[in-house]
Amino acid sequence: MSADMTAAPEAGVTWPNAVQYTAAVQRAPDTFSDPELAGATFERNAAGMLTHTEGESAFVFFTTGPGRPAAVRCLRREIQHGAERYRRLARFLAEHPVPALAAAQWQEDGIEANGRRWPVVKMELVDGMSLGRHIEDHLDDPDGLRGLAEAWLRTAQALERAGVAHGDPQHDNIIVTPSGGLRLIDFDSIWVPGAADLHPDETGHRNFQHPQRTAEGAWHRHIDAFPALVIYVSLLALAAEPELWALNTGTNLILELDDFEQPGATPTWRRLFASRDTRVRDLADLLARFCGTTVMLETGLEHIAGTLDLPKGRAWSAPDRSEATTQWWQPGHQAAPMPPRPRPHPVPRPHVEPGVQWPHVGPDVQWPQPIPIPAHVAAQSVPPVEPPPPVGPEPGRNTTLRRRVLAYWGVVAVLIVLGVVALLGKVL
Questions:
Q1: Which of 8, 57, 106, 242 could crosslink 86 through cysteines, CB 3.0-4.6 Å?
Q2: Where is this region: Disordered (predicted)?
Q3: In the chain, what are the domains?
């Protein structure tokens, strides 16, 4: 194996796309450095084609055996501090197990594609379905959704007490197991003790994160407090009013970034404030207050849900995006109002001798400014202008044309007479 093939990808390099990674997986075992992946069978569809899912950071292929099923994350971009982050995570979990976190391993030279080696993340394939899909399948089970909300509260408590912040809890990164438990996957921005210096280059899903983190990239031990509250409130609200699922776009639960940037001022907030569940109303009020407070609060879902209060923190408000919320081609775009036209200063009317009547005009008519005429020009006499000659046909032209027309019709008449005479001669 050449040194070039094993070198870490340099900055600015073009990472493989889905087609190139699919071709590499197809060539297994030659392309994987992990013996277990090299000998694995990968999931295929009914037509025998390899299947995969696509995330923001990776294309994910799934093994079905032999051995433990795994999810293989083939990266589509560089993950900042990725190798070191996953090493420190593994070291931490070896001493302080957190069952809610799926097992994961960074493999620096995991796969060969496009003539070189690329890192992959080999992750435990958790049995279950994503939080978003599970909710959609259980909208008719309000008790089940309330139970799921409490399961999420317990999961968030376990992470907080272990000193861990996932960094991107959202509908696709939370798996609901067949027993009703919750597991988290994808740790590209996870915070664990001993990794505080590994600031990630991503800020989590914008429809779950505090708008300050989306705007400024904040990251610390308690960074999950806001998205954890978003998920908890959403689950309880859907249990009370399943019709709120109409607000789901496939990239959120029921709230999104626009709601966080306008706390308490959007139709979604009004529906939460009017929920038939008093706890939803109280928690929605706290969430709206959290949107207007710094994301740097040292708190968590356990404290917020238990006390129905937030710690003191400085105020924060989202930057004004009113001029760039939509483009002119997008639905709902409203053009910015035109500034008022400045009115020109009126020009005084010329002096009019008494008794002279001016035609009626409106008050806004602008009178022309007088043009001064030099004295030497005014003193010159202007010669009279001769009228132009009348426009018409040249003399004699009509007479000539008339003669030609008469001659033409004369010839025609003679030819007709001769033809008639010839015809009569044959008949007689």
A1: 106
A2: 315-344
A3: 1-125 (no CATH), 126-318 (1.10.510.10)
